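Section 5.1 Outputs to date
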Amino acid sequence: MAKPRLPAPGSAAAGPTDPTTDEVYAYTSRLRLDPRRANPDGWRVDWQDGPWPVKVYTGGQRLRLRPGDADPLGAALHRVLYGCFAISRVRSDPAGGVHASPTDPRPHHGPEVLLRRPVPSGGAMYPTEVYTVLTGTDQVCHYDPYRHELVRLAGGAAARAVRDALGPPAGEPPAPALLVLTSRYWKNFYKYGDFSARLGSVDAGVALGRALRLAGAEAGPARVLSAFDDAALGAALGLDGAEEGAYAVVTLGDPAVPSGFGPTVADAAPAVLERSRTVKRSAEFDALQRAVRTRPRGPRPASEGGHAGDAAVHPAGDPAEAFALPPPRAVDLLAPAVLARRASRGRLFNGAEAAAGSLATVLHHGTGALRRLARACPDGLGARAVGTELYCAVHRVRGVPAGWYRFLPDACALLPVGAGPDEGCARQVHEALFAASFNAELAAFTVHVVTALDWRRAGGPRAYREEQLAVGAAVEGLTLGASAEALSGHAVLGFDVARVDRAYGLDDSGSGTQAQVCVGALRADPNWEIAVMPR
């Protein structure tokens, strides 16, 4: 039977309204349960017509960011943007970034020199762009991660329009800088198709988690805003909502300390350059993005069930059997050595055991990333972070029986759930992968990020985007925690979630796995990687 599809926008079947919440929910459920069949029939990747890895502007005034800038805001912007979004690594890979496997012995051969950013991204696509609004000088800029520069887009009215779209409380002074994180859909869609509806949001969540972490370290507590007017914010940034959407905003700096940092000359606005000649579209993908931006009309279906704001229903487990872990290590996740080690190198897992303290540290920092996001964002995104949990499949950790567990963060303990102790859990994790690009069985443990599944009454499709952003923030904390323990954390979204849910006993709980991070020790990497330092 053919898969049901949403009607094309503007078609007679669609009418003047967007799809219903139930139709969008069915689409996002398919993306989680069966991502391999999410794309239209006959979908093919056109490798020769992909986009550039960054959004390219030509013309306009540029402001170079430098370490040690005399202006405190300039120095903070340098450290936050370089530490999260800059092209900061060059990696040599004779296999072109795509390695042969038993299921794909002759994969597409990509570039042998790969450009990397500090955060993980599915397929190294990096669909997240960042814009800065400098409130002291009323400037709107785009960040160029190649040149580590701010490109002035507009000023005056545009900057004020951004603040109006965010709706700050009356009388509250704006932060000196606002970082607007967007997702440029074609950067992911050309390779992953409809699956990029999930992948792009999780990628943005990873970048959001890192930007929030850096902003707080540089300039004190930062806030995250997600309940804004999408259309108004996109218009203020000059975005086409069908091509790129704003997902979250991070404040940077102390509102009580205004700054005059910013471009001084109002040159003509720059133009966007494109590499692609043809941009493919998906009616369902586009409908989801419209539904996230604007609430679907029409009556709410009576069938709507539980939502992400409800208390989680956990699989049965005996608290008396909870396994206490050692206290997590107090580590600086922003230490240069930690950031330099972070990489997704699952194909180099060597099957070594991990210490129980390393497991505790990784889980602790994954939960910590979610709690930081919840504190920084009082709206729906914060609520999604509160409702996100971590489960763990222990493969080989000294002193911890192999099996399936739910992490109890307040007690720093593992509660056996579902299949419980299971010597074969590592093999099951590996067999659940859709693409055998690395051997997940050789990881020491695998962390699964779990959320409530029915987001419909938690704010409609907007809550779905918030849910995926929270998943990404958890992934960011887990991968940095792994790096702090001299391990590698390899994040994956393409796996058999139904099989993993059954192993954890989540079948009828209303919750399910959204992402997994395999963590393990590595053998030596034969390829070189160098850092790119800003001048």
